Amino acid sequence: MVTGEGGGLVRTPLRPGHESVELTANIEVSPDGDGAGRATIALTGTYGAHLLDQIESEPTQVAGEQVMAIFKSLLPGARLEDVSWAKRSGTVPAVLMSTALEVDSFVQGDAARASLRLPGLRSAPKPRLLDGVDSAVAYGARVRQAKWRLKFPRGWCLPRNVQLRIGNAAGGFLQTVKNDGSGAVQIERHGEVNSRWFENDRLDALRELAVAEHRALQRRIRLECGD
Known about the structure:
Blueprint lengths: L19 E10 L5 E10 L1 H12 L2 H15 L4 E9 L6 E10 L11 E2 L20 E2 L4 E9 L10 E7 L2 E9 L4 E10 L3 E2 L4 H16 L2 E2 L5
């Protein structure tokens, strides 16, 4: 059994479409390339309900450490503080978590070759976990979405408006980059694996999606000037 982060026992919900992780981050980039702002994570469905049960039954300090660990796994290298969490109302169980964050060298490189790489919310398993697999795979499927709202200093080059779409019988991945020309850039990612169980005849589709998503998440987003 595999998940996006590794191998092991996983829950396989009956309705994977209701299992989602949504990250929203608002970050202002300083003139030296560091980033600071606030991020929220909404964890919905069976996973959200499980976490909610855990943090509601633990002392506040222990619950805070659990929430902090989730942020650290999704935002590696960021300095985090002022962590909070709450149950989000709705028909599907959900928990909403929030934290302030700072990231050194959020944008790297000189003015002519500046770029950034955002942490990836992986929906498909890491490709290496499927190497040599020739039997049916149970997968902890869920929707993963990320929305990054970035504000760059006046006069900086910005990422170009672009859309990247990947899709097959196993699911899909979509990334859009939009800038308004005034220093505000929004980058959105949506990844989804559409099944909790893959028989042998569908493993190739899962492998293809895993490789394509992995390459997309590893690709740096470049800041470019000019037409």
